[in-house]
Predict the structure.
Amino acid sequence: DGGITQSPKYLFRKEGQNVTLSCEQNLNHDAMYWYRQDPGQGLRLIYYSQIVNDFQKGDIAEGYSVSREKKESFPLTVTSAQKNPTAFYLCASSGVASGGAYEQYFGPGTRLTVT
Amino acid sequence: GDSVTQMEGPVTLSEEAFLTINCTYTATGYPSLFWYVQYPGEGLQLLLKATKADDKGSNKGFEATYRKETTSFHLEKGSVQVSDSAVYFCALLGSNYQLIWGAGTKLIIKP
């Protein structure tokens, strides 16, 4: 049963602590993405990776870090430098689909609350 | 640069009404176009897609036609149900294989 898993679904942290969000995919996709979504808002790209051991900053990378040591995994660390970390975080992956559409597939998301 | 514009929500309809959510885009060439749906508290699901001009994507009673003349990809459904209440996102595949997202349109269906 192929898909993307994110854990945990809900995460609570104290201000000043780093926290790492997990994202794993078994779709054999080369590319993976992290998005942030705030209430009533659209998606904003944090980081993306098109191949193992390589990643690029998205539109709002400040205060976040990632690694891509394995094709299946793309963890996101929310550091204490991120000023407003409370949000819904979505991980996605994409590969070459039939017709070359490159659609993205999403995980269920992690809701992070920092107090 | 590439961009996607969606109609602002929320869109509120009664059950069995006809739905249209407008989406227009600006892009170089003819990019692949997508509609995604997000139910409350969940991730996004691909609803339908079209990869070239005049293609019609369809799924679960929803349809959208890729219109290059009007640079549009409007989402339609003939008879909505309460279970269709969600946020709908229009997106295009940019030149660097990244998705360019619209702001999302919240749909509320009343029984």
